[in-house]
Amino acid sequence: MLTIFGSIAVAIMFLSYRLESRYRWNILIFAVASAATCVYSVLEDVYPIMVIEGLWSLVDLQRFCNVSRALRAETQRILRRAISTLTSGLFDNQNTRRS
Q1: pLDDT tens figures, 14-40
Q2: For residue 21, what is the DSSP state?
Q3: 0.85 exceeded by the pTM?
Q4: Cα(44)–Cα(66) distance, rounded to whole angstroms?
């Protein structure tokens, strides 16, 4: 049963790593799968792998937070620009009608 758990964790790691450029949530999935592999390594008493997988999990969790923060900032910038464009267009149309 433990071997199946480890195999599934590694398979999820592989798939999420392979697909991480398509969707930012794959970075978080990779971090969780790395943590699961870390747990598997502890249960199998393979401590060097535990350290490596634990570090990978933390690094990818931080990377997910950075990507999410950057994406949120970019989205806010685009929305501000769109709202500014829309409102300036509305006020310009009102001024030309009055003249």
Answers
A1: 999 999 888 889 999 999 999 999 999
A2: T
A3: no
A4: 33
φ and ψ of 44, to 5 deg: -95, 0
Tokens of 39: 């747990």
Residue owning tokens 């501000």: 80
Token code pair at residue 87: 């409102």
Q: Which residue matches tokens 């003249």?
A: 99
Instruction: Determine what percent of the chain is predicted with pLDDT higher than 70.
Output: 89
Distance separating alpha carbons of residues 50 and 35, to the nearest angstrom: 9
Q: At what angle do helices 47-98 and 25-43 cross, to 10 degrees?
A: 170
Q: What is the DSSP string of 79-94?
A: HHHHHHHHHHHHHHHH
Distance CA 29, CA 11 (A): 11
